Amino acid sequence: MDLTREEIKKEQQSKNIQVPKNILEKAYRLMQTAYNMAVLYDENRAVCSKYVHSTSRGHEAIQLAAAFQLQEFDFAAPYYRDESILLGIGMKPYELMLQLMGKKDDPFSGGRTYYGHPSLKREGFPTIPHQSSATGMQAIPATGMAHGIHYLEGQGLLGGNNNPVVLCSLGDGSVTEGEVSEAMQMAVLHKLPIVYLIQDNDWGISATGKEMRAMDAYEFVAGFKGMERMRVDGSDFVDSYKGMSQAFEYVRKNRGPILVHAKTPLLGHHTSGVRKEWYRGNHDLDEHQVNDPIPKLRKALKSAKFKEADLVKLEDEAKAFVQSEYARALNADDPDPSTVLNHEFAPTPITEEKGERKPRGAEKVVMVDAALHAVDDILKNYPEALFYGQDVGGTLGGVFREAATLAQKYGDGRVFNTPIQEAYIVGSTAGMSAVGAKAIVEIQFADYIWPGINQLVEELSKSCYLSEGKFPIQSLIRVPIGAYGGGGPYHSGSVESTLLNIRGIKVVYPSNAADMKGLIKAAFHDPNPVVMLEHKGLYWSKVPGTELAKTFEPDSEYIVPLGKARVDQEANEEAIENGESCLVITYGMGVYWAKAASKKFEGRVEILDLRTLNPIDWDAIKEAVSRHNKALVLTEEPLLNSFAESLAGRISQHCFEILDAPVMAYGAENLPAIALNVDLEKAMLPTPEKVEQQIETLLNY
């Protein structure tokens, strides 16, 4: 039975937790280490401030208290000021200084990211996935880790009896972020094993707490039913240690969330680039200095009968150790510039087409059912897989029925509805991936992906690269897209160009049922984030001219590697040899506009279906362009500054010498939204008739 808030307090008092002397000594040694690091960094600003950094000065007590609770089977998501947490789990100053100076052997990122931004996967240490700098954004991936643990425990897949806990560390100012609320909502809704540590120093760069919030984090979470909470004095190591011990014990036992609010002073600068004397007066600095954790712990050590001489010796040793570590780091090698391209993506195991695309006795299937069957196969064969999003669970199974029957077949623990939280849906997959769960998620319409873009950019896309390949994020994000039949301005948009400007994610766009099934399988097995764009106008082949999107269903082993285009329609050899042919490069609905438009030019038009937009099959494009010497890039998006225009420009640059005509690009009118009225929709979008005119112009050039 869960403990109430009152029971937590009573149990803490009854246990009267005593902090062992060796823990007090260890904490003081590490406090002195952190203090001397901060002093040294300031004294050597010319070197140490080349790259911006923050220190933990003033926060050492609560950070060490939290670090001492973490076990090697736990997970953590620190924030940028948490260097004392890193020292507390066993990282050495030398290792942190390598990151400070952007050195080659920086153990987290190889010189790619800021000081105090860890990516740690090391035996004997808690796991710390890549941490971004986006304030408060770690709350969703951290909660996703707890959600993944909760899922794996529920399926009997976790193994052992360790009861892992996730520590999510946040500054109090970040709690005003909406994404933090999304994370906490899911933590209480699903009873997730996570400790939210809120370090409150009453500053957010130059803004004070009074300017930023009407209440502190402890008061704020009172509205989250099921969130236990406690306050500790974050400047007092003894009180912090007792509180964090109790918090971790509560979560290990009860498998539910707790928030610990720790009041701390801020004794250092916000960062090396925003110095305290620029915006803080003497009165404020003096008030914060009163609560310096170091003299408080020193006093506790004296009360515990530590001798003055021993403390002085410890202080001298810490200072000498930090200086020696700095000298080592200063002389360490810088990264080799030739490695800059490494780790954009983790290698995928799916490199060739397998299975039967058209097995004997196969029946035809529409795209939406091919997708359903692909996910069904995945859930059946991979117990670590789960599927969630808005309205995909329960009895509905998705607004397009793309998840019909899955919740009934696999249970609400594996296929479930989420709140209207696109940021959580996207960002939680990073945490899921870190703990070994494999999430398939859905955004209900492409027009609604924007609240999730922050997580997609800051957390998912950069993780593999900035962690030097330690933390690629396996994430399959399904997104119904495109316009047909009067869907209107908020259900019809195309977003691929925006997505393709996000480096570090893969973008897939199938045009038929067979490819849908094969590409979903490949996307699931890909260790990188994959966004699967699924044109809702092709789901059932109800739009005139899209009947061929319905194909014979491939077998259950069928898989199509990402990054491989497919010739959907060939031109005849005579037309090619006579220079009377052209190439249409397209994807999604464009395939069917091109098919219909090409009927007037029988045998003269080749259609290359890209299938994957990133990574793009550039070799197939060049080869096809060289066959025809005339090319049209066709898209459903508004054309100006689009992916299609970019691709047309690339072809012009790299294939200029073999072209017999300018590379053409064609798409929708350059408008901010698609109108509701079907005639206005048709006027904005490409149609077979409009595409026919473009092809005729190209062939006659």
Give an overview in words.
There is one protein chain. The chain is α/β, with parallel strands linked by helices and 701 residues long. The protein has three domains: 17-339, Thiamin diphosphate (ThDP)-binding fold, Pyr/PP domains (Rossmann fold); 364-552, Rossmann fold, CATH 3.40.50; 566-700, Rossmann fold (3-Layer(aba) Sandwich). The chain contains 26 helices and 21 strands. The protein has a seven-stranded mixed sheet. A five-stranded parallel sheet has the order 1-2-3-7-6, with helices on both faces. The protein has a five-stranded mixed sheet with strand order 16-18-17-20-21, with helices on both faces. Helix 2 (21-43) crosses helix 14. The longest helix is centred in the N-terminal third of the chain and has 23 residues, at 21-43. The relative contact order is 0.09. This is 3-methyl-2-oxobutanoate dehydrogenase (2-methylpropanoyl-transferring). Keywords: Oxidoreductase, Thiamine pyrophosphate. Its cofactor is thiamine diphosphate.
